[in-house]
Amino acid sequence: MTNDAKSPRLALVTGATGYVGSNLTTELLKRGWRVRTLSRSRDKALSMPWGDKIVAEGESAGAGQVEVFEGDATSSEDLHKALALADATFYLIHSMSETGDFRAEERSMAKRFARAAEEEGVGRIVFLGGLHPSGEELSEHLGSRVEVGQIFLDSAVPTAALQAGVVLGKGSISFRMLRHLSERLPGAIGPGWIRHKITPISVRDVVFYLAGAAELPPEVNRTFDIGGPDTLEYAAMMQEYAKTVGLFPRLVFSAPVTTPKLAAKWISLVTPIKANLATPLIGSLLHNTVVKDRDLESHIGTPPGGNQTFAVAVAAANEGTDTRRWQKTLGAVSAAVAACGVIGSVLVKTDSPSYRRLSKPSWQPPAAVFPLVWTALYADIAVMNSLVIADHLEADDAPAARSHAGALGLNLALNAGWCGVFFRSRRRGLAAAWAGALAGSSADLVRRAWKSAPERGAVLAPYAAWTGFATVLSAEIARRNRRRWGSRKKP
């Protein structure tokens, strides 16, 4: 220890504003630690659940308090200042980037951190990495985690490199991916990795083991596997999740050819998790990630009541969460889209004498094509817009959800209304202008969907393309029949 034995211990927590880091900070405060965080933004630290424990700038934290050091983990000078007098430090920094040589950057950052910890006489480094098999080629991100852990183990500072699988907790990206895949898909045909074995762990248990690892004697310098009592396939995790929250059983099948990048785009389409975040998560699922030893438990014990089961961890993570939000949103949006389709079909009169006498271009599709196209497009509209609205609601952004719902409502009104203008009023010029407004509204929906996730914009784009084509067709029909019938001439 670098401090007087009678003074409260000081821990430096990096990544304290992340999900695990924030929970760890809370746990350390409960245990009476003085906590210092290395943060780029003091304001973000103040917004954390422990923000009221932060002392004024320039003051030192006492037991159960937090001092924020504003700095950058890439700066040696900042690292030395942040690590000064620390008894232990927790390294929870991990890049989710896919650009450049992030592995080299992570190695460089870890070496810089280890060197500063050595020079400042820090008593212990606690690192959180990922479970992984031995003797296999690992994904880029999982391999990087292993390399960083080894850098700390090779340093002069005693290190506990903890290795965990999927973390089950409300703010865990891995859990959010699992949750939304399970809630939003009635079934799935997934890649082969959904059959890989995983030992998940609750966030409560992760922070227990992280905080406890700081108490290890200085002669302990090694990796430790941590995990809950259950080991399941990812497919089984989806099925067990559905069972735990009371959803009907999910059918999950594996396919042999889906690539990680394609899977990441699918996840970005279906869930709020962006493809660039899903890619490293999938990388860790390309292997069996199971606990091989539980040696840390013999050193520090287990959490009160033992390690949480998968079902208990899911229930805790979903406390206060509406697990039926997707069903409600999809139901409401689908009802609105169906009403639009019904109204439009009632207003369409392709058998009227006035429509049959119209001069139509040779490139107008056959009549049988229209119901097939519109059925597919209505399904597309319902699902893509439900995903966008549901994501806004998940983010507690009610204004954005209302804005998108309003844009969708306007679009559906224009959609159904065009049928009345074209087939009932027979004002062909107005119908062409109306179709143009519908095409513009459809393009706006595509823009909004693209902003939510590019994959959604791409899937919804055929709707904008079709309404754009309808505008050109309506304008051509109006041009061809202007002299023959006039814009309001009756049959």
Work out the helix count.
Answer: 18
- For the record, give the distance between the C-alpha atoms at the N and C termini, rounded to a whole number: 96 Å
Helix content: 40-55%
The coarse silhouette is elongated
Core attributes:
NAD(P)-bd_dom; two-stranded parallel sheet; membrane; 13 strands; 491 residues; NAD(P)-bd_dom_sf; transmembrane helix; Tryptophan-rich sensory protein; elongated; 54% helix
Describe this structure in words.
- The chain is α/β, with parallel strands linked by helices.
- 54% of the residues lie in helices and 11% in strands.
- The protein is built from 18 helices and 13 strands.
- Strands 3-2-1-4-5-6-11 form a seven-stranded parallel β-sheet, sandwiched between helices.
- Strand 2 (34-39), helix 2 (42-46) and strand 3 form a beta-alpha-beta unit.
- Helix 4 (102-119) runs parallel beside helix 5 (140-153), helix 15 (369-394) runs antiparallel to helix 16 and helix 17 runs antiparallel to helix 18 (454-485).
- The relative contact order is 0.08.
- InterPro entries: NAD(P)-bd_dom, NAD(P)-bd_dom_sf, TspO/MBR-related_sf, TspO_MBR.
- It is found in: Membrane.
- Residues 15-133 form the NAD(P)-binding domain.
- This is Tryptophan-rich sensory protein.
